[in-house]
């Protein structure tokens, strides 16, 4: 790809000649057999990239760098303030560790196409596990450690894995999260039986393994059973990543091998502007898409050094933790969520922890995961004196769709906007009739099909679910579920969701899922959960419940029970801590709960009584609860 072309030219080329454009990008991947067809558009609205191509993602992320003579370069830096451990792995070390991990999976019967669930904290072994699956063509599905057993069980039941790979614990600053009982509980909830659980025992949580069902990870790794990369089709699945849908049932986003590798390589070069050998750090968790794309795959595909950070932005030990990492490892590009910057700003608004840090290596800070509020952007720019680039994407897309492409010399940003379309993404704003809305007016943010390589080709639940979830609402377009507008300079302002998903500390959660949990409490007649504005986490969920007449539980006890029920069912990550008992919910005459008005009331925004309101008592009840 010619980096001297402007981002505008590339944007046009990608839209006008996608075949040529993405044929060029495919050269960033090492193929065993090059693709026969760049874009298979024979079955719209389903499109496949690089059909006929044969490659291996693990080979591209690991072995090819060793083969190219860069085996001694650092591939992974593990820095864990919560355990006090630091370790570094060269590409050669990584190759051996991944090949052995793959050998362990093969020994326990895993082969091409089999699923493997990875339920792990931020340790290097989690990354070895992902890459080991890729090496043998198995399909991994990583589940974030902050989810409760029921959420883990849903994913196991859907993905039907042969093996679960887990650790004895994760470490949160305030507690050790013992995974073994959580995993046991999840497996007990599933009809699907896994063959084995491979458990990484950590010193912070020794475990007694069940000889029948469990395998000791570290013992197995002592055997030098290294296996090589197997050829897979570009269109074969690399992983499934479950993400919150509008109901309590998570959607299994499928990522393929070839398109994913090409798109991520392209993004590292042109969006982030990295070169092989650069240090790229995404402070997220491998359980999220940011962790998949920009902790594990993209930096390694691009031959960079990636950082696995087992800690938080604040409290491990202080708000200078991120700056220490950037200084210590000479980080070139840093990526995190605005919530993390807000957490630092809240504890160190004057930037005292930045004062003596040498951040000269840093070229830019990229933010994503939620809307970046202008205050936070301004603060980061003032403190760092570097470009701070908000960019936008989703689990489904796999890589940024809106950004300033630093690698193409584009640092043009605008506070409040998430960037301009990345070449390959034809982003439009339309109304419910699929008509374009005028510049500056809000509508549904959609992407014209075909989506570029790297985006989801389908859902694990099948093409019908994919159609229903993303492709039916606006024919010929992918519906992002976000609403916003494009301004006269082409910047896209992402304003809100059009569904009931909320974003809590950069984590995407379904209020519908939380409502299902509340509604299952025997005392609850009906309920609503909405996302209230939160100065640290962006949004936090707030529940409103109407009780059954027969309820006998005291209010304060009931509230505790409801909070605990959401935590136990969805997980601590839901950050569900606030519930109000109300006498009535505001509804339209057709019975639809007026969630938007409820949210406006909680946030203290101006609101008008909707014309369709059924009974004003519902709104009065919410207003009284919020005022109390
Ligand atoms: N395993 C188990 N529990 C976890 C967990 C994990 N991997 N990650 C978070 N949790 C728990 C936390 O311990 C906390 O539990 P608590 O209610 O007992 O305190 C709860 O889930 C909420 O966690 P979190 O959202 O992390 O809130 P916090 O108050 O602990 O920290 C921030 C706030 C802003 C520091 C933190 O959310 C953060 O670092 N966010 C960055 C988000 C991010 O990287 N997003 C990815 C998209 S780019
Ligand atoms: P996830 O799939 O968890 O990555 O969440 C994706 C959703 O997070 C998007 O659809 C948006 O609603 C929101 N989001 C992500 N990045 C941004 C951003 N830069 N600005 C505004 N919203 C964002």
UniProtKB/TrEMBL annotation:
GO terms for cellular component: intracellular organelle lumen. It comes from the Bacteria. Residues 514-592 form the AMP-binding enzyme C-terminal domain. The keyword Ligase applies. The keyword Ligase applies. Residues 68-448 form the AMP-dependent synthetase/ligase domain. Residues 8-61 form the Acetyl-coenzyme A synthetase N-terminal domain. Keywords: Ligase. GO terms for molecular function: propionate-CoA ligase activity. Transmembrane segments: none annotated. Belongs to the ATP-dependent AMP-binding enzyme family. This is AMP-dependent synthetase and ligase. It comes from Hirschia baltica (strain ATCC 49814 / DSM 5838 / IFAM 1418).
């Amino acid at each position: 790809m010619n980096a001297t072309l402007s981002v505008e030219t590339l944007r046009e080329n990608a839209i006008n000649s996608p075949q040529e454009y993405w044929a060029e990008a495919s050269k960033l991947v090492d193929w065993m057999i090059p693709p026969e067809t760049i874009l298979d558009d024979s079955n719209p609205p389903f499109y496949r990239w690089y059909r006929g191509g044969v490659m291996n993602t693990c080979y591209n992320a690991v072995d090819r760098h060793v083969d190219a003579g860069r085996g001694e370069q650092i591939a992974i830096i593990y820095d864990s303030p919560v355990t006090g451990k630091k370790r570094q792995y060269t590409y050669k070390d990584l190759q051996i560790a991944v090949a052995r991990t793959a050998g362990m999976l093969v020994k326990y019967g895993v082969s091409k196409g089999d699923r493997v669930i990875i339920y792990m904290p931020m340790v290097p072994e989690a990354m070895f596990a992902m890459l080991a699956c890729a090496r043998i063509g198995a399909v991994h599905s990583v589940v974030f450690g902050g989810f409760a057993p029921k959420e883990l069980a849903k994913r196991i039941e859907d993905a039907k894995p042969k093996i679960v790979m887990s650790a004895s614990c994760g470490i949160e600053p305030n507690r050790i999260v013992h995974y073994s009982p959580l995993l046991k509980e999840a497996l007990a909830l599933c009809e699907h039986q896994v063959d084995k659980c491979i458990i990484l025992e950590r010193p912070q949580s020794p475990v007694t393994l069940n000889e029948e069902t469990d395998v000791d990870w570290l013992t197995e790794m002592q055997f030098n059973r290294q296996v090589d990369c197997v050829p897979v089709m570009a269109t074969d699945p690399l992983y499934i990543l479950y993400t919150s849908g509008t109901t309590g049932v998570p959607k299994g986003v499928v990522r393929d091998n070839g398109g994913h590798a090409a798109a991520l390589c392209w993004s590292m070069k042109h969006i982030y502007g990295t070169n092989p050998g650069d240090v790229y750090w995404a402070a997220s968790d491998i359980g999220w898409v940011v962790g998949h794309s920009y902790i594990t795959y993209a930096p390694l595909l691009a031959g960079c050094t990636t950082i696995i950070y087992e800690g938080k932005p604040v409290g491990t030990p202080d708000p200078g933790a991120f700056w220490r990492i950037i200084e210590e490892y000479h980080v070139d590009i840093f990526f995190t969520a605005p919530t993390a910057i807000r957490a630092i700003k809240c504890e160190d608004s004057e930037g005292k922890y930045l004062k003596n840090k040498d951040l000269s290596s840093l070229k830019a800070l990229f933010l994503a995961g939620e809307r970046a509020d202008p205050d936070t952007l301004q603060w980061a720019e003032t403190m760092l004196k570097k470009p701070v680039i908000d960019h936008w994407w989703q689990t489904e897309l796999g890589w940024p769709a809106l950004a300033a492409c630093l690698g193409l010399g584009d640092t043009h940003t605008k506070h409040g906007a998430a960037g301009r379309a990345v070449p390959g993404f034809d982003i439009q704003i339309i109304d419910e009739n699929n008509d374009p809305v005028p510049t500056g007016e809000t509508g549904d943010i959609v992407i014209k099909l075909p989506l570029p390589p790297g985006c989801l080709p389908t859902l694990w639940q099948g093409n019908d679910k994919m159609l229903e979830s993303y492709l039916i609402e606006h024919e010929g377009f992918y519906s992002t579920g976000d609403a916003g507008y494009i301004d006269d300079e082409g910047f896209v302002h992402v304003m809100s969701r059009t569904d009931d998903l909320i974003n809590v500390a950069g984590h995407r959660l379904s209020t519908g899922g939380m409502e299902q949990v509340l509604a299952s409490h025997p005392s609850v007649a009906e309920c609503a959960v909405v996302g209230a504005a939160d100065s640290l986490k962006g949004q936090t969920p707030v529940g409103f419940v109407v009780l059954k007449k027969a309820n006998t539980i005291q209010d304060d006890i009931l509230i505790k029970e409801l909070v605990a029920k959401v935590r136990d069912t969805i997980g601590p990550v839901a950050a569900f801590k606030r519930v109000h008992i109300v006498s009535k919910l505001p509804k339209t005459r057709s019975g639809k709960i007026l969630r938007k008005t409820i949210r406006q009331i909680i946030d203290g925004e101006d609101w008008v009584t909707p014309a369709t309101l059924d009974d004003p008592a519902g709104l009065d009840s919410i207003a009284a609860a919020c005022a109390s």
